[in-house]
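Supplementary Note 3. Input sequence used for the single-chain structure prediction.
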Amino acid sequence: MIEFITNIRRNRAIKDYVVVLGVALNKRYSPQEQFTVKQIDKTISDLGLSKRFTGYAIAMYRHQESVNTLSLYRIDQKLLNQLREDIASWFFDGWLHYRAQDVVHLGKPRGWKGGSPNKWVADQARIGAYHR
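The predicted structure, written as discrete structure tokens, is reproduced below.
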């Protein structure tokens, strides 16, 4: 039962890391291939996101170990690769070479991009897709 609850919390945190954190990192530090651990950590704190699973956030937005991954979180390249394998299997069909901007792209909204619904209806009528 405890493992079930932990998995729910982990999944919620990961969803926030994909949807909220990536956009905030891009806004604060401009789009990058990978972000620093301190940038990730500070943004998580400022947004009030769960810090319990920060290792996953680091694996999403970094692909190389650094001094800070080791000193602050004790994440070496081997552990980083293991975390990235989990993320790759969940989101990228096992593709391990994803970068920070690939994760950011996952969090972008899809579908309707705004505009007047009347314009959409008019466009559909014009091409014959809208029938009364």
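Helices lie at 2-29, 37-47, 54-61, 67-73, 77-91, 100-106, 117-126. The chain has seven helices and no strands.
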